[in-house]
Amino acid sequence: MIDTVYTHTKSMEVFERGLKVQPAGIPGHLGPVQSQFIPTSAFPLYAERAKDSYFWDLDGNRYIDYMCAYGPNVLGYNNDLVDNAAREQYEKGNCMPLPGRVQVELAELLCDTIKIADWAFFMKNGGDATGFARMIAQAATGRDKVVMVEGGYHGVAPWTQAVTHAGVTEDDVKNNLKVKWNDAAAFERLVNEYPGQIAAFISTPYDHRVFADNVLPADGYWQKIRRICDANGIVLIIDDVRCGFRLNLAGSAEYFGFEPDLACYCKALANGYNISSVVGRDSLKDAAAKVFYTGSYWSSAAPMAAAVACINELRRIDGARLMIEKGELLSSGLVTAAADAGLNLAISGVPSMFYMRLTNDDSLMMQQEFCAECARRGIFFVSHHNHFMNCSLTDDDIRQTIEIAAEAFRITARNNPDKVNK
Amino acid sequence: MPDSKVKARCNLFAVLRGIEYLLEHDADCKKLVEGTNLAIQFNVKDGPKGNLSIRDGKAHMKSGKHKSSMILYFTSPEHFNKMIDGKANPIPLKGLHRIGFLTGPFMKLADKLNYYLRPEGDLLSDTDYFRMNTELTAYTAFYALAEIGNHDRMGKMCSAAMPDGILQVRVEDGIGIFIEVEKGRLTCRKGTHGEPRAILSFKNLEVAHRVLNGKLDTFTGLGNGEMGMRGYIPMLDNMNPILDLVPVYLS
Question: Do B232 and A364 touch (CB under 8 A)?
Fold first, then answer.
């Protein structure tokens, strides 16, 4: 029995101030509505500090964190190696009229690490990377249509969003074509329907959409997509923004046994420092050079130094394997704890980025109750999104997580007696 | 730019449906239809067909053509919409001997709808008026939402993306409305469903009033706890853009 139940008085006080001066109080995906903090009162709204696998909220509550800032925390918050590398570069110079030499060092490191990378280009966010990849494909092929997977997420630029979303017009999305995940035949039909018009196929390495069990590629799926792209001069873009370095340091495509033409990276690149990248094959290097694409902070040196340190450390400790193993340990413990409470927990996706859902109801209400009870006791899970493992998680963190989750499962089961396994 | 056909559907199946509520909650309105037993068929050329029956002190609006005592014909959706705005008259095709009901009690019911839906002066400071204004506005808005989701071009895109199930909207300890979603088709009903897949709730009637009148945005309401959401949120995510279209059609 875990006695301590957190409250969030100070978070709410600051949030009330935020509501007056910021749209939605906390804009973007970290806001309580977008984050599915259900109910809001169960969750912390602001973080005071973070270290390794933990963060502390404004009320002094500590959480073992499985969202990792939605991915960037890959080695552990405030990792000394990465922070020192960034600090040293800050002291030398960060945002300057010319790039630092570290830009080339980072590009060399990425080319040495990611199997398909012959070159690297840097920007700030995942959406910058996917937008650039699309432009490269359009420049290289002279075509304007792009095939995407229904439910896939590639950022927040208008072309990546649904036409029904606020601020998006039909013109913004008129060159997007959609197929269902794992449906190579549908892609082939589209290619035949739009001959010579499709510039690229863009997709995440597996289907890790929100609010749904994540789905791995079917046997031979990626190889079929690769073949169709090759036969029709279509650029194959992998959006590895979320999965990158959590499946395989050589690229998530390597994990699934295929080779894209372009790959987009961001989250795990620099352990929280703001940088993203598109890497690609030599055949697309000219097109990448021709596309005018830049930003005020894209050549800043300190995040690049952080990325070099982060990638070197991930390579040294074989970070992807480590996170998968930790994810397997956690997942199996959670499934057992749920079963002990009479609940079925479905785990999907790759263990370093697992998605979980109580299948005792199809509304996610029980999952939301479970996540709220965990948050009240210091475990930060969300109900709609895949989670993220990081390399600093200890066996003790995982043991404690399972212990608290077991309590949360029992409470959820008690509140939903008609839905518990008989 | 609202589609006049969709607007006609909203006017018929959301605004005029409000007569059902009036007869349930307003004693004067109930008195107006004492002893009345009739059904009015509204036939709009190239537009909706609906039947409003009034009997035993209750009203019931149904979609389609049904047995009727009176038939009111409209040459176009625009003609019907002008009638709702008080700027045109219907063409009675059947039940001319009952025209007195149309020009008498029915007009008074229509005035009462206007009275409750468009507050003037300090009417809202009266507790009973406040409750009826808010409840009637809520019913009207969500019935209109279903029409917009089923017939407006952009609304159909949103409803097509809505997962199947029951989306419950409710005021805690107050009224409930639920939208049944099946293969992108929306059906609105009054009441509380036993197995909703998603719930949007208002802490009390006052919060519902502020939201429905654009004085409280949902992000603030959900953030500060005045509103709540639970369940399969993609249902709500895809309903919200339709809800944003409601004022376009009902203004």
Answer: yes
Query: Does the CB of A317 have a partner CB in chain B at under 8 Å?
Result: no
Q: What is the pTM of this model?
A: 0.94
Are B4-117 and B129-250 the same fold in CATH? yes
All domains of chain A, ordered by start, with CATH? Answer: 9-65+319-419 (3.90.1150.10), 80-317 (3.40.640.10)
Distance (Å) from the C-alpha of residue A152 to the closest C-alpha of chain B? Answer: 14
Chain centroid, CA B207 distance in Å: 19
Q: At what angle do helices B107-117 and B18-25 cross, to 10 degrees?
A: 90
The residues, ordered by sequence, that sit 6+ positions from A237 with a Cβ below 8 Å of its Cβ are A130, A133, A134, A137, A200, A201, A202, A203, A260, A261, A262, A263, A264
Our CA-based measurement puts residue A20 at a distance from the nearest CA of chain B, in whole angstroms, of: 9
Instruction: Assess contact for B148 and B155: CB atoms under 8 A.
Output: yes
ipTM here: 0.93
| Contact state of B223 with A24 under an 8 Å Cβ cutoff | yes
Rounded to the nearest angstrom, the minimum Cα separation between A37 and chain B is 9
Residue B98 has a pLDDT of: 84
Residues in B touching A24 (Cβ below 8 Å) = 219-220, 223
Per-residue pLDDT of B97-145, as tens digits, reads 888 898 899 999 999 999 999 999 999 999 999 999 999 999 999 999 9
Chain A residues lying within 8 Å of B220, measured CB to CB: 19, 24-25
